[in-house]
Amino acid sequence: MADEQRNGPSWGKPLQPEDMERAPEEAPAEERPTEPRVTYEPEPEPEVAHDEEIPDSIKAQTREGEHPYRWHLGRKRDHGSSDAVEFIDVKKAFGRNTILNGLNLGIPENQISMILGPSGTGKSVCIKHMVGLLYPDEGDVLVHGESVPNMADDELFEMRKKFGVLFQDGALFGSMNVFDNTAFPLRQHTDKGEEEIAEIVNRRLKEVGLAGAVDKMPNELSGGMRKRAGFARALVLDPDIVLFDEPDSGLDPVRTALLCELIQEVHEENGGAYTVITHDIMSARRVADFIAVLWKGRIVESGPASELFNSDNQFVRQFLSGEAQGPLGME
Question: Is 17 part of any domain?
Fold first, then answer.
């Protein structure tokens, strides 16, 4: 009896009819439940001219046998606003190294935009074109509808007053304290008196949390404090457009999150077209309203951040999720 309980009623003896009644019937093959098959639709081919002359520096970034712009569908999703800055078929090369190769991009008004892309793909070059530090070899760059390359020197000088720029390291003058660094644009570009300048500077420094650091020198500041001082300086002329060149560079994750929060709070209070150059995906998730993904000198896809993070483009999906597998390799 113990053996029967241990091994079951049919162990060591013929199968009984009652045992057969308990055995489940096997479903016919055509009725067996099957696991749903996952299928992947091939990515539609972009509208590119296959006889287009591709610069050697772009080919060098491309896998053998693949068209360099296979994933560049050029999809521009509606961002619901007018463009503060627009790139039209912009090409820019330094010697044999082509950086921008037919760039088309619109930066929306009153939104926080992020230009994302692999390192060395031309993101910072875009900023320099916006403010007229570089001019395109071909194409045009418009700021509020006006062509930057066609501006006379005095027009360019006035146009630059529309911009505030936060550079990677803050770019503070080492011989000036925080107050004088922040006041520099006002003293350089306006006729305001010192009392009015002091009111503006103190307000902006308080806004970025540096009200108690006005007398400190740059070498007395932490990396995050230097970024915030640079941010305050970028705001003192009440710019329509604020540019951030990798503001998270050199910061730890916590200070990066705090800086992103500050950018968002200041934008909510002041408005304007904020453009952040970065390759930090968490920063994009935190603050971006609009995202443009740049690769090989062209935009792969652009549009509202919520839509880009759900894109069906394989390159965009790979880059925004940080996956190792996908169109982007070590080329």
Answer: no
